[in-house]
């Protein structure tokens, strides 16, 4: 078991797994909150075009995927915000067009013809593909994602709960919506080396869904999801090395197993909480928001949920107090 840590590629893969385990749930908790759980899957489809362009122009597929994913995420957010009834058709064409274009570009690229363009490693993840340059890129992008998702947690939570109220309080809703979409795009490119583009959405959603089974606040859910994401990512990479299988499926199956365990433990825990506090009443969904024009650290306004907590959280028995 310990000999795997002597290889440079395994050391890079484990570091990348930790970074992916942090960033994917940190962004995914917002997507789950606003019922956009499959957004990461759509961005992953678009990212294939970036990978194909990287192969075609013999440049870094990671950076090309970052650019293409950001453009695709911005388009997706603009379509969503306009509420066009035919927006789902436009998004479907964007997703499947991205996959088709990516495969076509990889097929005609010189790298692919020379045997150097391995699309499978980007689709399903591979611990052998994490180079030192990729690790530096992943680390830099992950730092940006963590800074935004945790540093702006209060504002991002507000727009996920009620965009209209957030707009009234002076929060720049459109800017933050676009920023969240960009962070989701960056997370997809961060995770594609380890988890794979086809499975990255699972690591953004499943740890969050598992954490919701046992937590009662948004902050606790985000923290627990990140801890679980790191755990399954590291164990999945180690297991893929031992079993000689792609890392992506191993990580996702571990995450689903963790969700099953957490779900089994949720019902007894809920009954125990109910017995210990029978008169406590339902959990209140409050979030402290900065008042319009108030300086950082000033007094905040409390926003009662009035029973409008998202089904994804309320179904799990969680309060969403910030």
UniProtKB/TrEMBL annotation:
Residues 296-322 are annotated as: Disordered. It is found in: Cell membrane; Membrane. The keyword Transmembrane applies. The keyword Cytoplasm does not apply. It is a multi-pass membrane protein. The chain crosses the membrane at residues 12-31, 62-79, 91-115, 135-153, 165-184, 190-211, 223-243, 249-270. InterPro entries: ABC_BtuC-like, ABC_TroCD. CDD domains: TM_ABC_iron-siderophores_like (cd06550). Belongs to the ABC-3 integral membrane protein family. This is Metal ABC transporter permease. The lineage of its organism: Bacteria, Bacillati, Actinomycetota, Actinomycetes, Kitasatosporales.
């Amino acid at each position: 078991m310990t000999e795997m840590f002597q290889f440079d590629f395994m050391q890079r893969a484990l570091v990348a797994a930790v970074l992916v385990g942090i960033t994917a749930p940190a962004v995914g908790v917002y997507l789950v909150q606003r019922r956009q759980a499959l957004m990461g899957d759509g961005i992953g489809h678009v990212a294939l075009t970036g990978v194909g362009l990287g192969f075609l122009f013999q440049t870094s597929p990671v950076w090309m995927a970052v650019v293409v994913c950001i453009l695709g995420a911005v388009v997706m957010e603009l379509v969503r915000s306009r509420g066009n009834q035919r927006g789902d058709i436009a998004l479907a064409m964007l997703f499947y067009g991205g996959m088709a274009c990516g495969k076509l570009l990889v097929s005609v690229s010189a790298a692919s013809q020379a045997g150097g363009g391995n699309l499978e490693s980007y689709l399903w993840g591979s611990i052998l593909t994490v180079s030192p340059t990729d690790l530096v890129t992943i680390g830099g992008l992950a730092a940006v994602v963590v800074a935004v998702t945790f540093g702006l947690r209060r504002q991002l939570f507000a727009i996920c709960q009620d965009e209209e109220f957030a707009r009234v309080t002076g929060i720049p809703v459109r800017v933050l919506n676009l920023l969240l979409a960009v962070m989701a795009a960056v997370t997809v490119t961060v995770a594609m080396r380890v988890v794979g583009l086809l499975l990255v959405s699972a690591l953004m959603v499943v740890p969050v869904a598992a954490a919701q089974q046992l937590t009662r606040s948004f902050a606790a859910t985000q923290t627990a999801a990140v801890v679980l994401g790191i755990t399954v990512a590291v164990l999945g990479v180690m297991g893929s090395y031992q079993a000689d299988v792609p890392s992506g499926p191993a990580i996702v199956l571990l995450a689903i197993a963790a969700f099953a365990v957490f779900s089994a433990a949720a019902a007894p825990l809920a009954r125990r909480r109910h017995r210990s506090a029978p008169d406590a009443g339902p959990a209140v969904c409050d979030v402290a928001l900065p008042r319009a024009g108030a300086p950082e650290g000033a007094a905040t306004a409390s926003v009662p949920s009035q029973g409008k907590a998202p089904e994804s959280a309320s179904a799990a028995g969680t309060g969403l107090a910030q």
